Amino acid sequence: MTHANIAIGTCGVIGRGPGNSIERDFLPQAYSDFIYAIIIEEGGIAMGMLVMFLYLLLLWRAMRIATKCKGLFPAYLIMGLSIMIVLQAMMNMAVAVGAMPVTGQPLPLISRGGTSTFVNCAYLGMMLAVSRNAKMVDGDEPVAEEPEIIDENITEDNNEDNH
Fold it and tell me: How much of the chain exceeds pLDDT 70, in percent?
């Protein structure tokens, strides 16, 4: 935890640069539990704010999609999944900056890990499916075109020629 505070405290606004982290070698689980501290050390406070902004943007976008859904289930599904992802990200960020005790939560979509990455990708796949297939109130979604109807006269002419 002390090394995470050192990483954040010594980074400055623009950081040390990609791959130039010093505290990475001293942090336990530097690529999962404390990846946010490494992001801040290498990319600076600006990169840390950008990562936080992107998670909040994900939540805002999910909220917009949920308000356009006609049914309650797709709206609750997309909001529940996005809140789980963003809440886990905020918990990881709070641990990295020392605002919470260490919980072992990885940073979604960024931390190294097999099961967490797989589950978060499944969450995003479900969110994309809801945004694509749900019936929207405003009619923003493209309507599938009906198949082209073949003119019956053409088929009758072909049948007469064959007899």
Answer: 63
- Distance from C-alpha of 119 to C-alpha of 149, rounded to nearest angstrom: 43
Please report which helix (H) or strand (E) contains residue 99, including its range: none
* Overall domain count for the chain: 1
User: Could you give the CA distance from residue 59 to residue 83 in angstroms, rounded to a whole number?
Assistant: 7
Task: Report angle CA 156, 157, 161 to the nearest 5 degrees.
Answer: 115
Is the residue at 163 inside a domain?
Answer: no
SS3 107: coil
- Rg (alpha carbons) of the chain, rounded to whole number: 25
**Residue at 160 is within a domain:** no
Name the residue with tokens 């995003």: 124
Give the domain range for residue 29: 2-142
Residue 105 lies in a domain: yes
8 A C-beta contact, residue 32 and residue 111: yes
Kindly tell me the burial class for residue 73, based on how many C-beta atoms sit within 10 Å of its own C-beta (0-12, 13-18, 19 or more): exposed
Could you give the CA distance from residue 58 to residue 82 in angstroms, rounded to a whole number?
A: 7
pLDDT in tens, 8-32: 566 666 766 676 665 665 666 666 6
Nearest to 137 by CA among 89, 66, 86, 81: 66
Asked if the structure places residue 37 within a domain, the reply is: yes
